[in-house]
C-alpha cells in the first residue's frame, strides 16, 4: 500500500498556499457566500491567481490547462482551500468533478469549449439535479427534454441549486422520452448556459447562508444536440461516475482540523471534562475521516470509481464534520453567537459559520441514508473489507494454521482443552519466526495481518505479544496489577506501558469463560531487558489488528444471518433498522483499517512520538467494538447469545482485549495525557502542543 496519503507533504506547497491566502485575502475572511458582491469579486480574482500559478486544476492533464500534478499535490490544495473557508467559492465544482466528467464523457468540441474556462478560473458551474419531487429518489425527476428539430426543449424545475445565481453554466439532468419502465432510463446530462432564454433563478434563504440554495425554472429552454454530455439517455452512468469523485473530493476534515485546533485554548485540557473528551474524540474521528478520504482518492486514481469505499468514506466524513462543528461550538460557549457580523468575534465568527454550514453535510450530495442503502446492497452481494495484496500470503498461511474461521475451531478446542493452546502457540511461533514488526513498515504490516487473521478466528493466543517477543520472551502491555490474557502460556513476560515496567511476571491460574484465559495475579517480579520505543505502541496497534479481524467476523456472521433470516415475509437485512446499522459498522471497519495502516506508518517513522497515535487507534477500535458487537448481537436475535453460535464465542473471547490493558474510557483519558507529552499529528497543531514529528 502506498503511504503518500499519510503524509502532509509537499510542505512547501502548503506554505506557498498559506502565504498566498495571507497576501490576497483579508484576515479571517469566510469566503464569498455573503450578500456583498465584493466577496464574490475577491473569490473570482483569487481563482484567477491560482490558475495563473497552475494551482486551480493541478491534477488535470496539461493539454486541458492543468499542471499534470500528482494526486498528493492536488490533495494539499484541496485541504488548504477547504480549511481556509474555500476561497474558490462556487468554482470548486468545475475543477473537482464537472471538468473531469467532461474530460471523460465529453466530445472534443465540449472539451475545447468548457475545460479551458474552468482551468483559467473564469467560470462558475451549478448542478441541476434535485427537484421538488425528486430528492433522494433522483430518478423520479420530472424535468423533460422533448425532441425539437435537431435538439431539445427543456421544461421543469430544479431546487436547492447552489450558486445558480452566479453560475454561467449548468450541469443539468433532464429526461428524454423513452419506452422503458426503468425510472432511470431517459436521464440525460445537458451542459446549458444559464443566460439562455427561459431560465429563471430564485434564491432561497436558509441556514447555509446566501447563494447556497436556489430554485431554477426551465420554461421550454432550447438545448442543442451538441450540449448533451455522453449519450442521450445515458446520463445515469455519467452521474454515477461523476458523483463518486464528488463524494470524497471535499476535504471537510481539513476545516475541522483547523477549527478544532483554533478552539484548543477554550478547552481545559489539563483536567477531566466531557468537553475535553469530546474534543479529543473529534480529533481522532477527524483523523480517520482524512485517512479514508485520502485512501479512497488514491485507490480511485488507480482503479477508477470505487463506490463502496467512496460511500464508506463519505459516511465517516460527514458525521465527523458535524461532530467537530458541535464540539467547536460547545467550546466557545456564549461566544458562539458572535458571528461574522460581530466586531471582534472569536476567529471572525468562523465557528458559527462552520456550524451552520455543517448542518447540511449529511444531506447535500445525497443523504447519509442513501449511502447506507448502497452499502447494504454491497453487503448483500457479499462485499467485505479487503486486505492489501502484499500481505495476502501470510494471512492465508495463518488462517490455515488455525484451522479456518468457520466454527472457530482453535478457540472451541482451547475452551474444551486449554492445554491445546500450547501446541498452537508452538506452531504459530514457528510460522512467525523471522517476522519482527520492528523491522520496518512492511514487516509491521505483515505482523498486523497475522494479528487480524488471528482475530478473525478468535485464535486463543497472545499473538501480539508473540509477534513482539524478544529472545523468546513475549512483550505485552499488561493491565493494572499485571493482569494478562494467556499469561499461563509463558513462564516469563516482558511488560511495556507508558512508563515501561521493565519487569517479568510469572503466570498464575486461569479465570472464567468471558476471559477464559485471563490470569489475575502475577506472583513474581524480576528485572528484564528494557523494551525499545516501538514496543509499547506496536503492542497496542497489533492488538487493534486482532480486534479488527474479530469485528470483521462478527459483521460477517450478522450480515449472513440477516440475509437469510426471513421474518414478516422478507429477509431482515431489508429492514433499515437492521441493514443501516450493519452499513455503519462496515464503514467504520474501513475506518479502523485505515487508521491501523497509518498508525503503523507513524510508529515506523517516529516511534518516540507514536504513543498518542497507538492509543488513539486503540480507542477507536474498542469504542467501535462495543457498539458493533451489540449491533451484530441485535441482528442475530437469541441465537447469537448461545455458545453454539460463533458470535457468542467471539464476543466472549474478545472481552480481555477490550478491557485490557484498559477499557474504552480509560483509553481516551490516556490519549489526552499522551498528547500532552508527544503531541498528535495534525494539519493544524494547536498552539502549545508538543510537535508530533
Ligand atoms: C447545502 C445544500 C446544497 C445543495 N446543493 C445542491 C445542488 O447544488 N444541486 C442539487 O441538485 N441539489 C443540491 N442539494 C440537494 C440535495 O442533493 C438533496 O437535499 C438530497 O439529495 C436529499 O433530497 P431531499 O432534500 O429532497 O430529501 P428527501 O429525499 O425528501 O429525504 C428526506 C429524508 O428522508 C430520507 N429518505 C428518503 N428516502 C429514503 C429511503 N428510501 N430510505 C431511507 N430514508 C430515506 C432521506 O435520507 C432524508 O433523511 C443541496 C442540498 C443542501 C443541503
From TrEMBL:
A cellular component annotation (GO) from this entry: plasma membrane
A Pfam short name: Acyl-CoA_dh_N
The protein's name: Alkylation response protein AidB-like acyl-CoA dehydrogenase
Record family assignment: Belongs to the acyl-CoA dehydrogenase family.
PANTHER family in the record: ACYL-COA DEHYDROGENASE, ACYL-COA DEHYDROGENASE FADE29
Any GO molecular function: oxidoreductase activity, acting on the CH-CH group of donors
Reported cofactor(s): FAD
Keywords: FAD, Flavoprotein, Oxidoreductase
Acyl-CoA dehydrogenase/oxidase C-terminal domain ranges (all copies): 234-376, 546-646
Cleaved signal peptide residues: none
Domain named Acyl-CoA oxidase/dehydrogenase middle: residues: 126-220
Keyword Flavoprotein: yes
Ranges for domain Acyl-CoA dehydrogenase/oxidase N-terminal: 13-121
Amino acid at each position: 500500500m502506498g503511504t503518500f496519503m499519510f503524509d502532509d507533504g509537499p510542505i512547501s506547497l502548503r506554505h506557498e498556499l498559506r502565504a498566498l491566502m495571507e497576501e490576497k485575502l483579508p484576515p479571517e475572511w469566510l469566503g464569498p457566500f455573503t450578500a456583498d458582491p465584493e466577496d464574490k469579486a475577491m473569490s473570482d480574482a483569487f481563482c484567477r491567481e491560482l490558475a495563473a500559478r497552475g494551482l486551480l486544476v493541478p491534477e488535470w492533464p496539461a493539454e486541458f490547462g492543468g499542471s499534470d500534478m500528482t494526486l498528493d499535490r492536488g490533495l494539499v490544495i484541496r485541504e488548504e482551500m477547504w480549511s481556509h473557508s474555500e476561497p474558490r467559492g462556487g468554482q470548486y465544482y468545475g475543477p473537482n468533478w464537472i471538468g473531469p466528467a467532461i474530460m471523460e464523457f465529453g466530445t472534443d468540441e465540449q472539451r475545447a469549449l468548457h475545460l479551458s474556462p474552468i482551468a483559467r478560473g473564469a467560470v462558475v458551474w451549478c448542478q441541476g439535479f434535485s427537484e421538488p419531487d425528486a430528492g433522494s429518489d433522483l430518478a423520479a425527476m420530472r424535468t423533460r427534454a422533448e425532441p425539437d428539430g435537431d435538439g431539445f426543449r427543456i421544461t421543469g424545475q430544479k431546487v436547492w441549486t447552489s450558486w445558480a445565481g452566479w453560475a454561467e453554466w449548468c450541469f443539468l439532468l433532464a429526461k428524454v422520452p423513452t419506452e422503458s419502465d426503468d425510472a432511470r432510463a431517459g436521464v440525460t446530462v445537458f451542459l446549458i448556459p444559464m443566460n439562455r432564454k427561459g431560465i429563471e433563478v430564485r434564491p432561497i434563504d436558509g441556514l447555509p447562508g446566501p447563494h447556497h440554495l436556489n430554485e431554477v425554472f426551465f420554461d421550454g429552454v432550447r438545448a442543442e444536440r451538441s450540449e448533451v454530455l455522453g449519450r442521450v439517455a445515458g446520463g445515469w452512468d455519467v452521474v454515477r461516475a461523476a458523483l463518486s469523485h464528488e463524494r470524497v473530493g471535499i476535504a471537510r476534515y481539513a476545516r475541522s482540523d483547523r477549527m478544532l485546533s483554533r478552539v484548543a485554548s477554550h478547552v481545559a485540557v489539563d483536567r477531566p471534562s466531557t468537553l475535553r473528551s469530546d474534543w479529543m474524540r473529534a480529533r481522532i474521528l477527524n483523523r480517520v475521516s482524512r485517512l479514508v478520504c485520502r485512501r479512497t482518492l488514491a485507490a480511485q486514481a488507480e482503479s477508477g470509481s470505487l463506490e463502496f469505499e467512496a460511500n464508506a468514506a463519505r459516511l465517516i466524513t460527514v458525521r465527523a464534520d458535524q461532530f467537530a462543528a458541535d464540539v467547536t461550538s460547545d467550546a466557545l460557549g456564549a461566544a458562539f453567537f458572535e458571528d461574522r457580523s460581530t466586531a471582534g468575534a472569536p476567529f471572525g465568527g468562523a465557528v458559527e459559520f462552520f456550524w451552520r454550514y455543517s448542518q447540511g453535510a449529511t444531506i447535500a450530495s445525497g443523504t447519509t441514508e442513501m449511502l447506507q442503502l448502497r452499502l447494504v446492497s454491497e453487503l448483500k452481494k457479499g462485499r467485505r473489507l479487503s486486505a492489501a495484496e502484499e500481505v495476502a500470503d501470510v494471512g492465508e498461511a495463518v488462517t490455515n494454521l488455525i484451522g479456518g474461521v468457520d466454527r472457530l475451531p482453535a478457540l472451541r478446542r482451547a475452551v474444551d482443552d486449554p492445554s491445546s493452546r500450547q501446541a498452537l502457540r508452538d506452531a504459530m511461533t514457528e510460522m512467525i519466526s523471522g517476522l519482527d514488526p520492528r523491522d520496518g513498515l512492511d514487516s509491521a504490516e505483515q505482523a498486523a495481518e497475522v494479528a487480524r487473521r488471528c482475530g478473525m478466528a478468535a485464535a486463543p493466543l497472545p499473538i501480539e505479544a508473540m509477534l513482539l517477543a524478544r529472545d523468546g520472551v513475549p512483550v505485552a502491555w499488561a493491565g493494572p496489577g499485571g493482569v494478562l490474557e494467556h499469561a499461563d502460556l509463558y513462564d516469563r513476560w516482558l511488560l511495556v506501558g507508558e512508563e515501561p515496567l521493565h519487569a517479568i511476571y510469572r503466570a498464575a491460574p486461569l479465570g472464567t469463560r468471558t476471559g477464559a484465559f485471563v490470569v489475575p495475579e502475577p506472583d513474581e517480579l524480576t528485572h528484564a531487558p528494557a523494551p525499545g520505543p516501538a514496543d509499547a505502541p506496536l503492542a497496542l496497534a497489533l492488538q487493534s489488528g486482532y480486534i479488527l479481524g474479530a469485528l470483521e467476523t462478527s459483521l460477517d456472521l450478522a450480515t449472513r444471518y440477516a440475509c437469510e433470516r426471513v421474518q414478516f415475509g422478507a429477509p431482515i437485512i431489508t429492514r433499515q433498522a437492521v441493514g443501516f446499522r450493519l452499513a455503519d459498522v462496515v464503514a467504520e471497519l474501513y475506518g479502523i483499517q485505515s487508521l491501523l495502516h497509518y498508525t503503523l506508518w507513524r510508529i515506523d517513522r517516529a516511534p518516540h512520538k507514536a504513543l498518542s497515535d497507538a492509543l488513539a487507534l486503540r480507542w477507536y477500535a474498542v469504542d467501535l467494538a462495543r457498539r458493533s458487537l451489540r449491533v451484530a448481537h441485535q441482528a442475530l436475535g437469541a441465537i447469537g447469545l448461545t455458545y453454539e453460535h460463533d458470535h457468542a464465542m467471539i464476543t466472549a473471547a474478545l472481552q480481555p482485549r477490550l478491557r485490557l490493558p484498559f477499557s474504552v474510557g480509560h483509553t481516551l483519558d490516556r490519549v489526552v495525557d499522551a498528547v500532552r507529552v508527544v503531541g498528535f499529528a495534525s494539519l493544524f497543531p494547536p498552539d502549545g502542543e508538543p510537535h508530533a514529528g
